[in-house]
Amino acid sequence: MRLPVIAVALVALMAAGAAKALDPEEQLTDPALESRARALAQQLRCPVCQGETVDDSDAGVARDLRGLLRARLQAGDSDTEALNAVVTRFGESALLRPDARGANLVLWLAGPTLFGMALLGVVLGRRRPDPSEPPLSPAERARLTGLPRSPAPHVPDPLQPDARRSSQ
Predict the structure, then answer these.
(1) How high is the pLDDT of residue 113?
(2) Distance in angstroms (rounded) separating the CA atoms of residues 9 and 65
(3) Distance, CA of 30 to CA of 77 (rounded, Å)
(4) CA atoms within a 13 Å half-sphere pointing along the CA-CB vector of 5
(5) Could you give the CA distance from residue 21 to residue 31 in angstroms, rounded to a whole number?
(6) Looking at beta carbons, which pairs linking 56-63 to residues 24 or more positions away fall under 8 Å?
(7) 30: closest CA among 66, 57, 70, 65?
(8) Exposed/middle/buried for 72, CB within 10 Å: 0-12, 13-18, 19+?
(9) 70/64 Cα distance (integer angstroms)
(10) Can you tell me the distance from the alpha carbon of 75 to that of 68, in angstroms, rounded to the nearest whole number?
(11) SS3 state at 151
């Protein structure tokens, strides 16, 4: 009985989290322009929240950015021009996925490069012995099997009583 109640509660929480931050008064009357504005807002990072898109954020700056995008689109700007206006004003950090060029290229390539270096280190660290190393000769094998398996003779075995003490 508890499982269905918990499942319903989780679904309700997820649906509440999925609700967009857009106020009805922000929406444009033209559905085509509104869909373009929403798509552009999904490409921008909220300067306050950092982990959310401008479309999802409730922050005041995000609301202002959504208004700026809608005003630019109503003025006749293309999607690229509207995004460039935001990037000019806030920098490339406003983009959720910055272009992979210039200084950003270093950041884009750093992860795969470090992963490749770590993988190479693991591979080189686990190398097998050189197969050109000759196997043991029969004489070496016989000598090896003749070696004692117990501790060295000069190290007393702590589990065995000392023969010198017991004889006294």
Answers:
(1) 92
(2) 33
(3) 15
(4) 2
(5) 18
(6) 56/20, 56/21, 57/21, 58/21, 62/21, 63/21, 63/23, 63/26
(7) 70
(8) buried
(9) 10
(10) 10
(11) coil
Can you tell me the distance from the alpha carbon of 69 to that of 83, in angstroms, rounded to the nearest whole number? 8
Closest CA to 45 of 104, 87, 100, 101: 87
Q: Which two tokens stand for residue 64?
A: 């202002």
Task: List, run by run, the mean pLDDT of 10-residue segments along the chain (168 residues).
Answer: 68 56 65 86 84 85 87 87 86 76 76 92 78 81 78 63 55
Instruction: Using only the alpha carbons of the chain, give its radius of gyration.
Output: 35
Dihedral sign (CA 54, 56, 60, 65): positive
Q: For residue 44, what are the β-bridge partners?
A: 95
Token pair 């021009």 is found at 81
Unique residue bearing structure tokens 């920098």: 91
Rounded to whole angstroms, the Cα distance separating 45 from 62 reads: 9
Cα-flanking dihedrals φ and ψ of residue 45, to 5°? Answer: -90, 135
pTM beyond 0.90, yes or no: no
Checking 53-60 for CB contacts under 8 A at 24+ apart, the result is: 53/96, 55/20, 55/21, 55/22, 56/20, 56/21, 57/21, 58/21
Burial class (CB in 10 A: 0-12, 13-18, 19+), 164: exposed
